[in-house]
From TrEMBL:
Protein name stated in the entry: Uncharacterized protein
Domain of life, source organism: Eukaryota
GO MF annotation, one: heme binding
Organism encoding this protein: Letharia columbiana
Family matches, as InterPro entries: Haem_peroxidase_sf (IPR010255)
Any GO BP: response to oxidative stress
């Protein structure tokens, strides 16, 4: 389904202009399709801005997190991410 809407030509994480994957959505009220097209345009705008901001690799992961897995960092920082095993170990 992602291949239907992703722009595979440039591999930039963009979506094909004004598309959405499900044909079933055409049976919904027109406002639904309009919202999806608006999301599509905003997604591509945000992706382009992030790419422009980080041109030449100006932003990177802080060195103290470079070797960490994101899940481990989330468990450390956010109590809701802790599992029962984590609680039993501490």
């Amino acid at each position: 389904m992602q291949r239907k809407v992703r722009d595979g030509e440039f591999k930039l994480g963009l979506l094909k202009p004004d598309t959405f994957a499900e044909d079933r959505l055409l049976r919904q009220p027109p406002g639904v399709c309009i919202m999806l097209v608006m999301y599509n345009r905003y997604h591509d705008y945000a992706a382009r801005q992030l790419r422009r901001i980080n041109e030449n690799g100006g932003f990177s992961v802080p060195s103290k997190y470079a070797g960490e897995k994101p899940v481990a960092v989330a468990r450390e920082r956010v109590p809701a991410f802790k599992t029962e095993e984590d609680s039993a170990a501490t």
